[in-house]
Amino acid sequence: MSESTSDVCQDCGACCAHYRVSFYWGESDAHPGGTVPRHLTIPITPHRIAMRGTEQSPVRCVALEGSVGGKVGCTIYPQRSATCREFTAYTPECAKARGAHGLAPLAEPALAS
Ligand code: SF4
């Protein structure tokens, strides 16, 4: 769930229920400067962890609330990982996640004149 496109993301959530959301273990709050609550993560390699629920199938991040395609939210939004912050709406990856949930790709926003 990205930052700048949060309006459209709050009616979607497909990316949080499609991809494995992994990141460097230093992002866990078990480490100085880390923010992601440790108890919501699971180790997947010696140096990487993932959001619980995204390491399995069907995928659904434990921090995602609501119904995909309806009103959704991230319960740890200010603390989410760089992987989540960097995911961007309107990309092919966004469209792929939406498609997996039976949702059409997002229409590009109209450019301001
Ligand atoms: S932490 Fe939040 S933004 Fe990241 S996958 Fe989970 S619900 Fe989505």
- Helix proportion of residues, in percent? 10-25%
Question: How many helical stretches?
Answer: 3
Overall pLDDT:
94
Cofactors, ions and other ligands in the entry: iron/sulfur cluster
Number of strands: 5
Radius of gyration: 14 Å
Helix and strand content put the structural class at alpha+beta
**Poorly predicted segments:** none
Strand percent estimate: 15-25%
Largest beta-sheet details:
3 strands, antiparallel
Element order: H for helix, E for strand: HEEEEEHH
Q: What spatial order of strands do you see in the largest sheet?
A: 1-3-2
- Count of the separate structural domains: 1
Key features?
113 residues; 3 helices; globular; two-stranded antiparallel ribbon; Puta_zinc/iron-chelating_dom; binds iron/sulfur cluster; alpha+beta; three-stranded antiparallel sheet; 5 strands
Written account of the structure:
The protein is 16% helix and 16% strand. The chain has 113 residues and is α+β, with helices and mostly antiparallel strands. It has one domain. The strands form two sheets. The protein has a three-stranded antiparallel β-sheet with strand order 1-3-2, with no helix packed on it. Strands 4-5 form a two-stranded antiparallel sheet. It is globular and about 40 Å long. The two termini are 28 Å apart. Iron/sulfur cluster binds next to loops.
Write the layout of secondary structure elements.
Layout: H1 6-9, E1 22-24, E2 41-45, E3 48-51, E4 64-66, E5 72-74, H2 82-86, H3 92-100
Antiparallel strand pairs: 1-3, 2-3, 4-5
The structure holds iron/sulfur cluster.
